[in-house]
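Moderator note: this is an archived Q&A kept for reference. The question asked for a predicted structure of one protein chain; the sequence and the answer are reproduced below.
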Amino acid sequence: MATRRCVLFDLDGTLTRSEEGIWKCFRHTAKTMGFSEPGDDVMRKLIGPPLAWSFRNLIGVPEERIPEALATYRARYNTVGYRENRVFPGVRALFAMLKKRGDFVAVVTGKPEPATRKVLEYFDLEKWVDGISCATDGHAEKDALIRAVLPEDAGEVWMVGDRCFDIEGGIMAGVHTLGVAYGYGTVEELRDSGAEKIAMTVGELREILCPGDAVPAGAFLSIEGLDGSGKGTQIEKLTDMIDRFGFEVVHSREPGGTPIGEKVREILLSREDAEMTDITEALLFAASRAQHVREVIRPAVAAGKVLLCDRFVDSSAAYQGGGRQLGVERVLAINAPAVDGTLPLATVYLDIGHTESLRRRCAASEPDRLEMETEQFHARVEAAYHELIARDPERFIVVDATGDRDAIGEEIAARVLKRLTEAEK
């Protein structure tokens, strides 16, 4: 019978950087039960061991109150704590590469199954996982959990984890062991536990498990809106959520994004260049974009990163095509060789009326050359954006930008993450 390589992963400290939620849950439990909150020296040790062991040996909870501590901890974790988490950058790409190889992928953790599934489902990792082996009835011995999850056609087996419990469990189960030093253990701990190999980063882990394999392509996202619509705030919020899901985010902007592009930006936005003709302006934007696409956007996507760009070609179509009245079609034609087919997977448009956006923008700082234009100019820009959205409704994510900033950020993140995770292969 043909066999499959099996790669088994610990969860906390190996797949996710989970200290935020775990530490908050431990502190909440200690405070609720009247115990001293654990200090920083204890906190790092709390990630990895079974919960009951940690409460007993690190927090000092008496045996008879362990069930109460577990219930208090899990009540908060299962409602809030599991989301206070971050997938390590590169893990998503690694999972996709393992599945492409045909490997059996499983998660082996001392967490209970409901909590484990919550994390995997929330971060959309479960689509790559063939098996889950979790603690039951207070038993979380890693060697037993490893044996329980292996399929009948298991061939070469690797246990990947960041703590001694993972390595020792793998050795006891008779499988290969691979320690990761980017988690909550140390290189010394992993070596002393007998790890066969140690990866210092997720990139090194990927090279050990998938040597020579191509990294899956990343994605290109843009965010658009009238000046004053809140793009800067929402880029920051969206970056945080994309990072939580383990996507490697890089930022850029237009005009600019490259040394050449930044020089062009200075010319375009300078108030001293008031004599610039409309067609010159459109061509300069396109020239900056041509460099940006080839020097920054395409290489970032090819390297598996998510490039989040503040404005792209839609801005030219709206500002020069609509605002300058050059025509949307004409400006898109000017930009065709610059873009050369490179368009965002999704474009977030912050929808706000031009009057309110200008009021916000002028209240924030001194306007630049384009922002100083008439109200009629900005009204035409707004109308051109709506025309672009009507032309390509599948690409645009239109969000009402007049409400609460946090609520706007949550809506944007949910809709963008849906696009990103659906695009993963």
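Archived answer notes: The mean pLDDT is 93.
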